[in-house]
Amino acid sequence: MEIRRQLGDPFQHIPTADMLLYQLHQGNAFVCQYFFIAERADVQYAMFIIEDGVYAFLAENAPSPLISLAPDLTIYVSGFSKNIAAGLRVGFIAAHEKYIPALMRAIRVTTWNTPSLMTSIICEWINDGTVAQLEPEKCKDAQIRQRIAQEIFAGMHYISHPSSYFAWFPLPEEVRVDQVAMALIQENISVSIAEPFAVSSSVPHAIRLAIGSVELDSLRTALRKVEMLLSNIGIYNCDCN
User: Which residues contact 191 (CB under 8 A, 6 or more apart)?
Assistant: First the structure.
């Protein structure tokens, strides 16, 4: 199999919210640089990194982005709908200047124009410091919500990060994921199953819970309902992978 591109979420992996260790972060860049040098030497295989930084603002003491470690072969992609407001559907790309013309052509043929008003708003907020002010506030909000989840799901096996807006719950193999999701829908709680995130035919047996879209009191009520349902199917002390 020939691998030409690597897409990564080194700051918070989607959907589990795990963060890449700095040593692996550096090793990842080193391996890709090796293949990049090989391409220059007319070797058959070469690898580029597409780095997703949309959740970088949630990572305290985050490692340097891969583009700073391997600038010749990394394309850094991010936006402002997660760190500022969902309605700001504006994204950006950072890459070596030699890739910019090709990237601009690809954008023109695959997307509609970004509304100029949104672009003007976000540029102004970058320049006047609004973005720099809002990002730590969003990070603090995520930490508060994770502490609520940790309290309610104490003793339960799940994967998350102290600054994440998500929690990933592996389920026992004998439990049908779709039935769990449907049972929660009946409680007016919507969760994501693992299938949309799977990149192979092997789909993890898990659900993802988002905790960032409701008021804190409503969040506590909803999480208690989730905890009650999951405890009934034996997720406590479950050796689920």
Answer: 180, 181, 184, 207, 208, 209, 210, 226
pLDDT at 187: 93
Whether 10 and 101 share a structural domain: yes
pLDDT tens profile 22-38: 444 444 444 444 444 44
Domain that holds residue 6: 2-128
β-sheet with 166-170: strand ranges across: 166-170, 206-210, 192-193
Asked if residue 42 belongs to a domain, the reply is: yes
Query: How many domains is the chain partitioned into structurally?
Result: 2
Determine contact, residues 166/209, Cβ cutoff 8 Å: yes
DSSP-assigned states of every residue in 99-133: GHHHHHHHHHHHSPPPPHHHHHHHHHHHHHTHHHH
| Whether residue 179 sits in one domain with residue 102 | no
Positions of the chain with pLDDT under 70: 1-47, 234-241
Q: Which residue type does 113 have?
A: N
Strands annotated E in the chain: 5-8, 48-52, 74-79, 91-94, 166-170, 192-193, 206-210
d(CA 68, CA 53): 13
Of 68, 55, 60, nearest in space to 25 by CA: 68
**How far is 64 from 55, CA to CA, in rounded Å?**
14
